[in-house]
Recover the amino acids of this structure.
């Protein structure tokens, strides 16, 4: 009897060690290395890998906001794709009138015009996110069925409004002059814009990681994901946190939209709806609510899509689904399950 | 007799009864009342959509499952019959083979998806079905050797259903009794039978369990019902009926293609109709489909005029452009989810109840 009690006391005094789960993290390099012999040629492999990483980064930008919103507020925004479209279309407001700067052969001019476009897009989508949360989502917190329906309706309306404002035709979007072309290293061609996308994506990820892990706001967000009621009970206004995260997530989707639009070089209002499917697969693979999982999921999905597109084009059509099924068979809650979800 | 036919689930509102009767008679005598190929096409589309939407209501309104794969099952039915007729030539045998193949594929897919993801929460299922359905649509448009790709496939139907076929030489009520008419009545009666069948299902003890799951799945489980099994059954049933709706549509159009059968627009149409018509009331599908398809075909003419009148004003003219009618429906959709979640039918029924109490 005595021994058990003392055992409990010992266990209470020391916090359990945080279990570090590195296995999913290793998946990405493992996958890339495994594919090397299958593809055969090293330069092709490098090109494919960089292309995959670039696409993964862009998808991550769009998906991270969604998964964080879900983790914190238990709201899955089926209209998230609308922010992607709106972001991309807002960028045209800068990129089309300032065509001279886009076409100029100067990195500085190109960078500033794209930077301006991104800033405006993030601002607009952030404000739109605030309005969306306020008008569409607030009345249906906690009601999943209505959330799905209402955000879907919001998506339809937003898509149609884009048609009203920008017209129904496709808009060609020109990539700035210095962003075109590719670096040739050995035999491998690395497209410049893809490298830029990787850079921006990594910046977003690192910033997000630091904010979530090194700041007080980040601590509150993580605590909110774990147990929102407890955070509220400790005297923090979790509603403000909700709105802030929702705006940030929407702005990130806008950023992703601009990058994605420049990558595709043509814009249609359906751009957001098309990417939504991929974004959903990514956050399911990552574990709903987990930002780290979302990052790994995005990389995996994009790499697999690129490799499969090269090795077996027909398989590439369903590679996302196959990957999702495989991951879920291994870990039914996603790579990094968030507690209680 | 009517009570048995409707499984004891009467409209329970005078206005609703009148509307339903109007739709029923309009559809039953459509070839004679509204001459012209276009209006007959509208009538047949309404018939098929009533079945399709009601089968979706089985999931959304009665069981509380949000699925985005309903067009996939609809498409499977259409493609099953279409490809079978295309490959085997116009025969009844081909229709049977195509339908049977489509039904079994739908059943297997619905079972797998259901068992895989219905254990978890509604949101999870919605996401998975969205992913699977979009992958299926991509497959259908890419495997062009089999499906005809983006162009789809046109095919010939058995002789009895061909427009050139005449059953009797004389005209009846000014309408030739040709294959088109026979196909229309095939679609109409099949739709009617399926509709009554679904009415039977939702008013059976099985349907009550589904409603219990919708209201509170934890409590339903506690009462001893295995919710996963009931959900999966409802899912399979909805999928099979949607497949049959696809079969009817393919026979009517004599064409299958990804745009008309599998695109996400069809899915949003279904969602809009269910919610505006009334979730959890099979009759909502009838009223919703009739209104929606009529609007889709005739409201645009009206909007064209409005747009023409506003031609000078830049943004407003766009707002009323005939292609923007979905915008207005989307707004109506959002408003109805908030303010009258039981849709038109639910609204009418509540009014009738209130009047009786007065």
């Amino acid at each position: 009897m005595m021994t058990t009690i003392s055992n409990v006391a010992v266990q209470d005094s020391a916090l359990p060690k945080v279990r570090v789960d590195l296995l999913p993290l290793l998946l990405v390099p493992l996958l890339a290395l495994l594919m090397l012999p299958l593809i055969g040629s090293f330069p092709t492999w490098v090109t494919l890998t960089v292309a995959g990483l670039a696409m993964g980064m862009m998808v991550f930008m769009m998906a991270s906001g969604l998964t964080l919103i879900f983790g914190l507020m238990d709201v899955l925004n089926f209209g998230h794709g609308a922010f992607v479209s709106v972001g991309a279309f807002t960028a045209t407001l800068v990129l089309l009138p300032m065509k001279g700067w886009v076409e100029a052969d100067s990195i500085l001019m190109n960078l500033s015009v794209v930077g301006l476009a991104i800033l405006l897009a993030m601002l607009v989508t952030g404000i739109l996110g605030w309005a969306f949360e306020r008008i569409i989502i607030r009345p249906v917190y906690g009601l999943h069925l209505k959330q799905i329906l209402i955000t879907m309706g919001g998506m339809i309306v937003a898509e149609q409004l884009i048609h009203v404002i920008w017209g129904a035709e496709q808009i060609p979007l020109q990539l700035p002059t210095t962003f075109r072309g590719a670096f040739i290293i050995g035999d491998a061609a690395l497209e410049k814009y893809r490298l830029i996308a990787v850079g921006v994506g990594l910046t977003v990820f690192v910033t997000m990681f630091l904010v979530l892990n090194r700041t007080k706001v980040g601590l509150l967000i993580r605590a909110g994901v774990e147990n929102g009621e407890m955070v509220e009970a400790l005297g923090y206004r979790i509603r403000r946190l909700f709105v802030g995260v929702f705006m940030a997530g929407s702005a990130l989707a806008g950023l992703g939209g601009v990058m994605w639009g420049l990558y595709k070089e043509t814009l249609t209002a359906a751009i957001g709806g098309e990417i939504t499917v991929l974004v959903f697969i990514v956050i399911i693979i990552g574990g709903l609510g987990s930002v780290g999982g979302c990052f790994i999921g995005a990389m995996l999905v994009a790499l697999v899509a690129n490799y499969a597109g090269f090795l077996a084009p027909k398989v590439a059509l369903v590679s996302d689904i196959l990957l999702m099924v495989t991951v879920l068979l291994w870990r039914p809650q996603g790579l990094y399950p968030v507690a209680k979800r | 007799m009517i009570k048995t036919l409707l499984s004891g689930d009467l409209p329970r509102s005078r206005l609703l009864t009148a509307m339903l009767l109007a739709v029923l008679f309009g559809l039953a005598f459509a070839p004679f009342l509204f001459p012209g190929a276009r209006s007959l096409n509208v009538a047949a589309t309404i018939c098929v959509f009533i079945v399709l939407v009601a089968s979706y209501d089985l999931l959304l309104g009665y069981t509380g499952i949000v699925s985005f794969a309903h067009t996939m099952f609809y498409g499977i039915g259409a493609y099953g019959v279409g490809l079978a007729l295309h490959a085997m030539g116009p025969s009844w045998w081909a229709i049977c083979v195509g339908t049977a193949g489509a039904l079994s594929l739908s059943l297997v897919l619905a079972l797998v998806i259901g068992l895989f993801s219905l254990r978890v929460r509604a949101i999870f299922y919605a996401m998975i079905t969205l992913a699977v359905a979009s992958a299926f649509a991509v497959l259908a448009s890419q495997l062009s050797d089999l499906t005809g790709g983006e162009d789809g496939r046109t095919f010939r139907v058995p002789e009895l259903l061909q427009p050139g076929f005449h059953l009797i030489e004389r005209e009846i009520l000014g309408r030739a009794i040709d294959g088109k008419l026979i196909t229309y009545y095939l679609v109409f009666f099949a739709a009617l039978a399926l509709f009554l069948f679904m009415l039977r299902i939702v008013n059976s003890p099985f349907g009550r369990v589904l409603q219990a799951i919708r209201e509170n799945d934890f409590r339903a489980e506690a009462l001893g019902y295995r919710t996963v099994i009931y959900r999966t059954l409802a899912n399979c049933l909805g999928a099979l009926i949607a497949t049959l709706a696809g079969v009817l549509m393919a026979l009517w159009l004599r064409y299958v293609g990804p745009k008309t059968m599998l695109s996400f627009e069809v899915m949003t149409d279904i969602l809009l109709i269910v919610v505006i018509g009334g979730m959890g009331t099979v009759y909502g599908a009838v009223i919703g489909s009739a209104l929606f398809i009529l609007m889709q075909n005739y409201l645009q003419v009206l909007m064209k005029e409005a747009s023409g009148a506003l031609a000078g004003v830049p943004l407003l003219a766009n707002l009323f452009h005939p292609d923007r009618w979905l915008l207005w429906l989307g707004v109506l959709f959002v408003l109805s989810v908030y303010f009258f979640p039981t849709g038109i039918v639910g609204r009418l029924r509540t009014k009738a109840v209130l009047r009786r109490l007065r």
In short: Residues 60-276 of chain A form one domain. The two ends of chain A are 37 Å apart (CA to CA).
